[in-house]
TrEMBL record:
One of its GO terms (molecular function) is alpha-1,6-mannosyltransferase activity. It comes from Brassica carinata (Ethiopian mustard). Its main location: endoplasmic reticulum. This is Mannosyltransferase. GO terms for cellular component: endoplasmic reticulum membrane. The chain crosses the membrane at residues 14-33, 71-90, 96-117, 178-203, 215-235, 350-372. InterPro entries: GPI_mannosylTrfase. Keywords: Endoplasmic reticulum, Glycosyltransferase, Membrane, Transferase, Transmembrane, Transmembrane helix. It is found in: Endoplasmic reticulum membrane. It is a multi-pass membrane protein. Its EC number is 2.4.1.-. Signal peptide: none annotated.
């Protein structure tokens, strides 16, 4: 009984948070990749987690973007995500799992601030309004989907949620301070929300002018000093990022270069799509009218959207900070309708509300399916890593990623370790690619001279209406293509039977010299495996070596009484096969000794094989007992 009571109390306190967190986690796991709007914070988190103090390796110094952004948000997320990333790196998982961990951390931060706001809703409006607030938030796609995406708008949203919560709580100065913090550090456009809220506080005499000046100016100075000191170090120049963003977007109006919309677009398109036809209708038609407390909360938020509408370049994420308060207004209306559902007049409204809930759920699923297919280059690079066989080679596999691919799913978290190397060199014409030594290309072009297309990845294109069921379908088309250098398509890149690791590589060669010492002796075969370093010519901040002039350096040499193909089969065996051969077959093979196999293991620069060697040394006493046990290895026919 006490256990049930504790569980009931836990679910009562955190049940709503678990629901929101579970939905946000599903969005992260199903769509782990990111787009260009998130690129700065994503690359910053990667560099903080993996490069740490080595600033010269940071991505933003080579690709600074249009305007500088602050590192403070990336530092906060990386700090809390670092234990998870350490475990992921220690276990050898791909770096994409680190991105998922970082996004989980961001989601926890944003949802915890939303929890604070929701608790204040419960205290001021009651449990039923809180429940409808949760329901509306759950049925809307964009708020939970964006809550785990490291956009500056989302980082600011966390502080805006705290400001909303303090507003409902009656801590007006704290609410203003959180908005100032968000304005100075993360998003300068939050000032358009700060202004109407502060004006309402003055008009309702909730705050005094001199006390506001005392607290808010001090907060602004401290936060400005924080961002200038941190970001000037990271950018290696004196900079206040959000001031430069404000100058670029508002004074120069350069954001219009990325497209413009009509002045009413937020009200006629963005908000209805965000709310899936529920929140905007309820908040405008019922919420303000049904509760006299709601207009004081909603009018400053609507003023924020109106002021933002003057900026020609418009995106839904710009006004994401208005969503929680509009959801509150909608929740108040939904709660009033539900309470009076048995009355004749309200019965129809209740039926319409339930129908809109069902439509909203369908729109959320539909929108998520479109978003899932909106990161084609991330899926393309993942597939390239899966179908290619870099373990067969010793050279570097260079992948060029064009601008379109870098904007639609690929980040540094998608990269793999050696032998993979990546180039994001910009302003390169297609005709120039065949003159570079790139092994693979990930770009938007169906064909490139000198390369063959391995596969294409489809992405979301448009919504199409049709007769029949379902009446609305998502149309996809090929958006990203992966090409391979035709010169790289040779035997050394093909996967041998039982192959997991290889010493030979592209632009490597195997030379066998047959030397007869005298007529009465067996043939002595000397196997030499060597390689040439290669790197794409013309890459920024990189060195090049001409494959014609470079002298090959031997990485393994073996002299034995056997045929070359036997050595090659052995060299192309995976670690398990090598161990099997070592302690089970080697003692029966007069042409190969354990020392030879030990040489193969120790001279192969692979952490996996080195670990296999260490495991063997540790379990050597056990192997001596196993010698007497017959073993049948599944790949034994490939080991000569």
């Amino acid at each position: 009984m006490p256990t049930d009571s504790k569980m009931a109390k836990f679910l009562q306190s955190y049940g709503y948070d678990l629901i929101l967190g579970a939905i946000a986690a599903i969005y992260v796991l199903m769509a782990p990749y990111t787009k260009v709007e998130e690129s700065f914070n994503v690359q910053s988190m990667h560099d903080i987690l993996y490069h740490r103090h080595r600033l010269d390796s940071y991505d933003h110094l080579e690709f600074p973007g249009v305007v500088p952004r602050t590192f403070i948000g990336a530092f906060i997320i990386s700090f809390f995500a670092s234990p998870l990333v350490f475990i992921i790196s220690f276990l050898g998982f791909p770096k994409i799992y680190s991105l998922v961990a970082a996004r989980f951390v961001l989601g926890c931060i944003i949802l915890s601030t939303l929890r604070f706001f929701r608790i204040q809703i419960r205290k001021k409006f009651g449990y039923q309004v809180e429940s409808f607030f949760l329901l509306l938030t759950t049925l809307q796609f964009h708020l939970l989907f964006y809550s785990t995406r490291p956009l500056p708008n989302i980082l600011a949203l966390g502080l805006v949620n705290l400001a909303y919560g303090n507003w409902l709580k009656g801590n007006f100065y704290s609410a203003l301070n959180f908005l100032i913090f968000a304005t100075v550090i993360f998003r300068c456009d939050v000032i358009l929300l700060l202004g109407p809220i502060a004006l309402e506080f003055f008009l309702t005499k909730s705050i005094s002018f001199w006390k506001t000046l005392k607290y808010c100016v001090g907060t602004a100075v401290v936060t400005a000093g924080l961002t200038i000191s941190v970001d000037s170090i990271m950018w290696k120049k004196f900079v206040w990022p959000e001031f430069e963003v404000f100058w670029f977007n508002s004074i120069l109006n350069r954001s219009s270069d990325w497209g413009t919309h009509s002045i009413h677009w937020y009200f006629t398109s963005a908000l209805p799509r965000r709310s899936d036809c529920i929140s905007i209708n309820f908040s405008h038609l019922f919420g303000i009218l049904l509760d006299r407390r709601v207009p004081f909360l909603v009018i400053p938020v609507i003023s924020f959207v109106l002021l933002y509408s003057k900026l020609p370049h418009k995106e839904l994420r710009f006004i994401i900070s208005s969503v929680p308060m509009l959801n509150l207004s909608a929740a108040v209306a939904a709660s009033r309708i539900y309470k009076n559902r048995k009355k004749t007049i309200w019965k129809l409204a209740n039926m319409v509300m339930l129908a809109l809930f069902a439509i909203s759920a369908g729109c959320t699923v539909f929108t998520f399916m479109a978003s899932y297919n909106n990161y084609p280059s991330g899926y393309a690079l993942k597939r390239l890593h899966q179908i290619s066989h870099p373990a067969n080679v010793k050279g570097e596999e260079w992948v060029h990623i064009d601008t379109f691919s870098a904007m639609n799913g690929i980040s540094r978290f998608c990269e793999s370790a050696f032998p993979w190397r990546y180039s994001k060199e910009e302003e390169m014409v297609v005709e120039e690619l065949q003159n570079r030594n790139f092994t693979y290309l990930v770009n938007e072009h169906p064909s490139v001279d000198g390369y063959k297309c391995l596969f294409s990845e489809e992405g979301f294109d448009r919504v199409e209406l049709r007769q029949g069921f379902p009446p609305i379908v998502l149309v996809k088309r090929a958006k990203v293509y992966v090409h391979q250098d035709m010169k790289a398509d040779d035997q050394l890149h093909k996967k041998w039977p039982g192959l997991l690791m290889s010493i030979a590589c592209m632009h490597s060669y195997v030379m066998a010299e047959d030397e007869e010492k005298d007529l009465g002796r067996q043939m002595i075969v000397t196997l030499i495996v060597s390689r040439r370093q290669r790197m794409p010519m013309g890459r920024k901040k990189s060195w090049t070596i001409s494959s014609q002039t470079h002298t090959p350096s031997p990485i393994y040499m073996e002299t034995r009484r056997s045929q070359p193909h036997g050595s090659l089969a052995l060299l192309h065996a995976d670690p398990v096969e090598l161990l099997y051969y070592w302690f089970y077959r080697a003692r029966h093979d007069s042409t190969t000794t354990s020392s030879t196999l030990a040489t193969i293991l120790t001279t192969t620069p692979s952490s996996i094989v080195s670990r296999a060697h260490n495991v063997y040394e540790f379990l050597k006493p056990l192997f001596s007992f196993i010698y007497s046990i017959p073993v049948v290895h599944p790949f034994s026919e490939h080991i000569t």
